[in-house]
Amino acid sequence: MSMRVLIAVPWARYTPHFETDLEIIQRHLDDGDEVHVIGCDAELPACDRNPEHLLYRCAFCQAKRRRGLALLDGRVVPEQLFRLTDEDRREIAAVRTDFPDRESLLAFRIEEFDLGYAVLSTMISFLRDPDPLAAGNREWLANLVVAALAVYRSLQHHLEQDTYDRVYIFNGRFAITRAVLRACASRGVTCLTHERGCDHAHYGTFENTTTHDIALRHAQMTKLWEESDPEERERIGALFFTERAAGAEQSWYSFTGRQEEGLLPADWEKDKENIVLFNSSDDEFVAIGPSWQGPIYANQTEAVDRIVAALDGETHRHLYLRVHPNLADVDNEQTRAIARLSAPHLTVIEAKSPISTYALIKAADKVLAFVSTVGIEAVFWGVPAILAGRSFYRPLQATFNPETHEELVALLRADLEPRPKEPALLYGYYMKSFGEKYRHYRPEGVFEGTFGDARVRPGLLPLAAATLLKGIAPLEKALRKRAVASNLASLRGEQRR
Q: How far is 414 from 403, CA to CA, in rounded Å?
């Protein structure tokens, strides 16, 4: 029985995410389904990948979307992005856009749409700062709130006025993409979010939730493990960890490729109890949702400060903080706090240091992780691992999972035995196996690939126009300001007055 599906493509800038949209569309066309596509023709005053509304990015994005849709074998039905009533426009004109701090923004909701989380997630991801409001960016924030609300209401009307069996959107975490996901939930329509799969050749889909849903991931892991051959799943699960230790690129860049195998810090003393803390970048997780809020600490800066203070004077122990390589060249609240750390029983290993992550894991008496995969990797390598934050592997109970600061410090002082390895193998098997294999997209690395036989790129004329706009900064700025004002006026209904 054929289906009627809606693919929302609010932006098409990045490979492989837009190519995954094309993959999904082509699969439905191959099955004889009716496919409708919503895109943005620069009507949004701000979006997840262009919060400033830079015109050259809009031009590039539109041209790439048109080029990609032209490569499809079959016809899709184009739909306008906005379907707004006069009541919607009045709501948009009156919506709150001024928030004094991050907490007030996170608390902002419209119905069941966690709009504040969605907007902050976009801003944080774009700026790499867990508290972007502290540095200003108020205009971005206001425009994203308006854009997200307009998309939320428009999608509700799309789903009320037309019947769809399912809707697809990328990721579901950001301002515009989460607006689509929450609109579907409000109207009882199945929404599938998509993201990278187990490797470059696969993509994953997640029903009625973001790709960061811990409970759903746990259910997927368990189901996949239980349905698989016992010997094969253990072999593949172990391969996930041995490949990572060898610096293999899996679904993302390897962060250990520039590290020196076996290298430990110069002050490493084997006769001491050595505890290695592996942090992560706060900006990646702070605005996903309440389910990712740490059980103990407000953030990793507070965690490290309190842990270092708790073990002060215990000279038979030494702490090592391995700063995540993803924080290299990042200047934000978290990295500035790390730079201020100093204690006789603490060694900070910088993000760019050639010291080996896996030498640290294997030589450590204990490992402490906050979000990083390193926690479950330590379990695989037979090292006691403590998890102080949230992670996809926390429900597996492979790590020690304290709920208070006192419990955590007690674990750091305790003589811990390694936990059983099987939950780590389950995790590894999932991370090596989940997702659908592409049929039409051919990956060539993290951000490169072809759809069919072609790279999805704008034609020369749109590319030249985008380049020209980028090169004439004063003109671009003036035109951009005018375009954003026009978009905002249209969404608020001001042009009708």
A: 16
